[in-house]
Amino acid sequence: MCSLIMDNVSIVRIFILSGFNETMNYRVPLLLTTLLYYCVILFINISLVLLIVLDESLHEPMYILLSSFCINALYGTTGFYPKFLSDLLSSSHRISYEGCLLQAFIMYSFACCDLSILAVMAFDRYLAICRPLHYHSFMTKRRLSQLVCFSWLTPFCVFAINVVLTARLKLCGIKIQRALCLNWLIVKLACPEADTFSNNISAYVILVVYLSHWLFIIWTYIYLIKTCVRSREDRVKFTQTCTCVPHLISLMTFLFFLDPVYMISGSTRLPQSLQNFITIEFLIIPPVMNPLIYGFKLTKIRNRILGLFYFKRTSKLRVSCSPNKNGAK
Fold it and tell me: Which positions, given as ranges, span the membrane (predicted)?
């Protein structure tokens, strides 16, 4: 009888997101705030992508990589916010088995795609500052396309394998103690007799791959800083004309909001609402902060944005100051 019950429980077709239990008392303000914030994310990132696509003077490697950065932000946040908003409107917080695996795949691939793009950006800045004579001959359109594909396809392939390994597990639970699906939360629901060895190996391989990304970025910027402190002209170039400062801020944001997340959020001693916030904060801060940092720091983008506002303002002034044809004599 017990084995029959266990077999029935392990055939999981739906999960319950129990992370919403403490949000019911303030569901309406949370819904309105989240909806407004998601609209801000969409507006900022889409605007920056369109600005880069439509302005031919911005069709340079650093700006194309920046647009890829913004597209990835749209990809990751779209995998979370619509479902989160629908759950706030609903009294039952359920997600299908396939939908949960898909969301877990999007969350992990989004985070690691960010790191891959930062690694490509660091390589681009290394070439531009330390190998300026070889930069244009190496960073061709074809090479840039290959690097962009690398930054997207690597996390997609890695985490597709990870999700396939998770999908084969026999599960004995349906309650996920968060407001979204993550791979390690699904693995925690595996039955005691389930073989999670390959999942653990996959997790360690992924950790090594993206730790190497992180080390490459750190080494690149240490080398750039050492190179740029040699003269005042190089220091000015480092802080103003290149994207190194935004890159460093984005990297620190990524490490601060992602690395401690999965160490801290596994603790059940924290309040449920705090656990939820720690888990999803990498979907809250970086998607808005990164485009704002690049928009204000990069001279060309800042000038284009200010130029658009100035053009609209002067157009309105011309309309308001133009003489009335009926009243003019």
Answer: 35-54, 61-81, 101-123, 144-165, 201-224, 245-265, 277-296
